[in-house]
Amino acid sequence: MIEIKELSKVYRMGKEKVVALNKVSFNIEDGEFVAIVGPSGSGKSTLMHLVGGLDSPTKGSITVDGKDISKLKDKDMAKYRNEKIGFVFQAFNLENTQTALENVMMPLIFSGVSKKERKERALKALELVGLKDKVKHKPTEMSGGQRQRVSIARAIVNNPQIVFADEPTGNLDSKTGENIMNLFQELNGKGYTIIMVTHNPVEAQKAKRMVKIMDGVIIDDVVNERGVENAI
After folding, report:
1. What integer pLDDT is reported at residue 200 of this predicted model?
2. What pTM was estimated for this model as a whole?
């Protein structure tokens, strides 16, 4: 489903060039749960931002369902992000003045569906992540784990093909983080393709595949037998 070829990203910092990614190539199949693993500054978040359409590569191509998204115009890129992609961030990125239901409904505002359908789909997404009884609560009235579940519900409300998770348990304690990782496994079991960025090797074990990156290049790409077994 996703084909990445010779992908490079170079940033300019004054007169210096910083190579964040250097000729990265690999594929991700539909329905995979892939952990992109590496230390801070390895290029893993840059890779996610490029595939997620949040940034443009310096060189190379990213083909999703036969279309090179690196060549999309702004309008088409926005459509790609809205229809095919869901994002889960470390900092949750929720609106504290809105309820869980309102937060989850937000991605549907520009989808062309009625307010009634937006509400129905948001309620279904919240139920799927185990928050059916928290729809009227605001983020400030929830625990960290509950807030991350709201952000996951928001990520899947549009029924995207791919869910990106950027250090999704970084702000959570270990037990709550484990529960969130179990939820990602459940979603993957329902058919969602999940690409997770993490520096945590314990979390990476939950994925079916680990792509290890260092200094902007892939140094290892292995099937994670433990993740496959846990998903069965």
Report:
1. 87
2. 0.91
